[in-house]
């Protein structure tokens, strides 16, 4: 108990401390919003200038001539011509993306003199014995080396004084019959000209080469803008010499994930050949939404004009975003164009939801004040509809514009469509269904007027009607008259509800207006008010809504198990691998390169010779002539003598890696080559052998045994047809799990796998990682929401909504087959879930409790929106810390932090002032509806709208349980007052009674006490009847349709 008291005291102190920050941020954003609303034309003019600048810069960028360096973004096969690689099998052939390790590709070099020719018959024979011995090694637990490696162990290739950047050309190596290289990848013996620098060219077809070796020949060039071979040749030479421009005729390979190359190629090629199913689904949803608008409508005269005005505001805001991009000097990339669009879209949605909450209160307030359906109410309804056009109507229009724009201009239509589809799933599927379950299960609490995230206000007329029915039933029971049935009372209550001054009557049929089709918000309002609300009174629908929500949770949870987390190079490659030194080596040779981006160019005979034959012969004199000319021009530069030795070694390793192998360089200390020396050099260089057999394994030449600590390998011989046995046991599965737990984040695939390791095991680990990350996110969100909202129930509701949105995003990713390639995708779904939910919760905290009008509306709205955006940003960063610290992802934390900070600043200080200023200007032109609402906000007694007021304590309502049945109390006090008035004027029972003695006075006092007790019982029975009425039907108050 003491601990709980201390903990609650600390939370209260933290909340009071954060309240100071709350007040400061509200004051700051209030000033900004008031300035933008008061100086509307200044804000509008500055925004228009920025928009003009953005449009001009964007159009100039689109009309600019395409440079030649952007034409090299295609993967080419010599035997099939122009073709983009998008299939997973083909990509797996080039980049080993499966759960199996890369077969190691050995390079034998001499430490002192790299020009020493190591291709001697003795050397080849000894090397063949070594590789055969390793491949045929078995352990005592029955796991052979073929279980460890997906393919045979490796290939011996000799780096013998390669002097060119192009290892496929390898000029200067004499091609003779004695330079035979054993190719142990399924092809048997092959000539040296077939294996040059890790790329295989044979007279066989591409399918045969791919099936035999596991990788394909690929050429990274585009000949569309090259008229002849000489122009192509000059372009390649210019690209090599001018390394400062890394996009010059090249294709940048991003090694951040193994699948990124395939996705990049697919992104640049697919939109020109087909339309993604996500885009089709988006268009179908838009059409369906407009069809719903035709059947569900409400009449507002100036609706179309206001919606079009809101649409113009959104377009202007997008152009302003373009202007800021132009002024900042950023490149016109897909991300820099799409991110402002998404930010503007959600800014519009947040502002519109905020206005919806406030305008619902003010409109109903005016209607209850005695002016139902009048000009003020109609204008207020028009303002309410027009402002909320940005929430759904403007949002759907944005979807249309973005879809058409991306399909016609941008190359990333698939990405945009998938994100829009995920947004639709979150906004219109999960949250609405989850809200249905909450509304159904929390109906009693809402009916009693308790404060919650989805609170609704009751009217005195409603309470008075319930009290009258309860007192009437009590009197009729006392007189012996049976009370009316529950159905009759409920029907009478509904009849009374229909005349309480609702702004839109549920029984009135209105003609269709064309402007209504432009604003889908009325469809949702009509649906919630006249369809969803009445259904919530039925217990069966509550159960159905709950089951639907649970079903969605299960559906998305199962979809989350299908999520594929792509691997980063840090996760896939062990620390002792060649690629860990890639950054340092690559930047030393190419200082212009970004991290893990590399220029890759391979020369193939087909482009050089211009022939259409599927067979390439390297002894073609024309090809030799071309390659010789390339070598001569390339080696003329002064930088060649300094950089060429390093480039040769580094780039050979790179090409081997691109071919699907792990580069493994073996340096011999002396010219004499023996089996033991070669075998020990191979063991020390092989990463895979060190993982399987352990480090520091050496072959004792005297005893013929492999010794490594306490483990001893016994060998029967060194011939190629004999096997090596071991006398120790190893637990492969345990080892795999240890590697998985220690080396990978987000459940990435294992380096060394075996048939015992099923794919679903690591997928379940992915789900486990995502699940606990979501749990931590919910805890962080709930704590932050509690500290800032001051209500544990509201904080819990926000946390549940965020958790559901998170799970829905992952489930959507899993079902549509989208890969999570980096933390950027993990962060994106918080954009979809967190700000809008937090904004709505914060709006209910402030705006529903306050009466705001005039210019203060825009300023207050900005204050109430800007702060939760910043607070939500801080909470999201806190929630993503577990993901940031897993699997070496901490390196991109500055990117995430900068993205959130920039988004919050842009959202709060630029977009919202513009939108609120324009909307406030439009609201002022509607007439005197705002003033009339403010002057008539209290209304006549008995019919006025009760606005909940904030009490002294945070998070509580002014009225308590004693005031919830004030309609009953008012009626009782009214009857008592009438009786006193009648007695005063000589009427009624009191006037007919003569003065009584003291005994009779005491008897009269006893009678009054008895009457008071009867009134208290009647009041208690009325409360019980109200509870029974709520329990039986779970009624939603007549004015509680403002949940949307």
UniProtKB/TrEMBL annotation:
Keywords in UniProt for this one?
Answer: Membrane, Transmembrane, Transmembrane helix
Recorded hits in Gene3D superfamilies, A to Z, give: Multidrug efflux transporter AcrB transmembrane domain
Pfam families given for it?
A: Sterol-sensing
Keyword set includes Transmembrane helix: yes
Query: TM spans, by residue?
Result: 40-60, 277-294, 306-325, 391-410, 416-441, 540-559, 770-789, 796-816, 822-844, 864-885, 891-916
Q: Where is this region: Disordered?
A: 472-505, 929-961, 974-1044
Q: Which residues form the SSD domain?
A: 275-441
The entry sums up its family as follows: Belongs to the patched family.
The protein's name is SSD domain-containing protein
The species is Chromera velia CCMP2878
